[in-house]
Known about the structure:
By secondary structure, this protein is of the alpha+beta class. It has a domain at 114-240. The protein is 30% helix and 21% strand. The chain has helices spanning 2-33, 79-82, 106-111, 202-214, 241-263, and strands at 38-44, 59-65, 118-123, 139-146, 161-174, 195-200, 215-222. The chain has a 5-stranded antiparallel β-sheet, with helices on one face. Strands 1-2 form a two-stranded antiparallel sheet. The chain is globular.
Amino acid sequence: MRQAFALIISLALGLLAVYAMKNYINQEKRAANKKVAMVEVLCTTRQIIAKSVIERADLKMIELPETSVTPDMVKMPEIGVVEGKTIQREVNRGGVLFHSDFLGKQRERMSGISKGRRLLSVPVSQVTGVSGLIKPGSRVDLLYTESASAKRGGAGADSSSTAILLENVTVYATDSQTIDIPQSSMSNRGRSYSTLVLSVTPTEAAVLVAANRLGTITFTLRSKSDFTPSKILTEVDKNSLVSLAKDENKKRWDAIKKLKANSK
């Protein structure tokens, strides 16, 4: 009798496991089948030299996930806006075009802030602002370091931590400059600015205002063609600093070894 009862229980558990697995697979399939909204943007069909005039043959349309598209990107319906215009930077073949790439866009950008966006000035120094390398139209990530005084309970300096706050944010202007000035037109000191004007959502603006009051915001410059979010958004503090550094250093050396192996 006990054996029969145990057999029934085993069969019931087996059926339950099969049902749970089938339900999980179906959920994964439904998630994978969810259609991602795509936006048509313009990129180049060839390498474009700075100061070139853009022609229709230089342009083609690609689709990007809506979450990766920024207001500064040139959308397909805006092809007439950039056709025949002079581009101020070199663009590799297949590179996405941005309104800030073109001369004579200052008046349009100042009067054409996208719906739902806000412009916010964030103070920077030579260190937090990447030593003057950021230009109007650049893409940046923002790191937030919480000051010790902002920690709960007034913990000491050892309790400070740093985390990625926002990623792939468009720099609308450096100080009041909305168009990049060629390096040849500058003094020997190069670019200098004390604020960066960012294009953000109202919620992002509130987050940045609070972060600026509670701690320090540091900018990192990223490629305009990099739309990949960070895989790890880990908060770095005194307890995780060394271990995270070891992990990243191992990845760096693995990449170097792979590069050397491929070059042989």
